[in-house]
Q: What sequence folds into this?
């Protein structure tokens, strides 16, 4: 299974790599352009997005993930947005989390991503 981590910093990729089972390939995109190219051309089974303060097209990214066959399972993490709608993600999204996030919660979300595939 491939899990894409979208974050400019490699820390989140490192954390996910150490929390995920060893058979999960953790790939990183450090720019939105790189992430969009991977999502379109080499879709992973799942993705974790570490949301930044910039106005990225998160709703467009969510739609792109949902349109894949099968859909890409997602988790959105943010320390600057208190609700998914602030980031342009549909209201009621169960895959949006405000940081700081405990290791246990992140591990459960990684497990959910793996189990959904």
A:
């Amino acid at each position: 299974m491939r899990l894409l981590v979208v974050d400019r910093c490699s820390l989140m990729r490192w954390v996910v790599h150490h929390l995920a089972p060893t058979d999960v390939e953790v790939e990183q995109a450090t720019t939105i352009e790189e992430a969009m190219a991977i999502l379109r051309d080499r879709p992973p089974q799942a993705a974790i997005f570490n949301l930044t303060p910039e106005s990225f097209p998160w709703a467009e990214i969510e739609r792109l993930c949902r349109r894949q066959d099968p859909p890409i399972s997602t988790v959105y993490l943010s320390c600057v947005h208190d609700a998914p709608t602030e980031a342009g993600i549909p209201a009621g999204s169960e895959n949006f989390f405000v940081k700081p996030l405990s290791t246990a919660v992140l591990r459960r979300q990684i497990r959910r991503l793996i189990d959904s595939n």
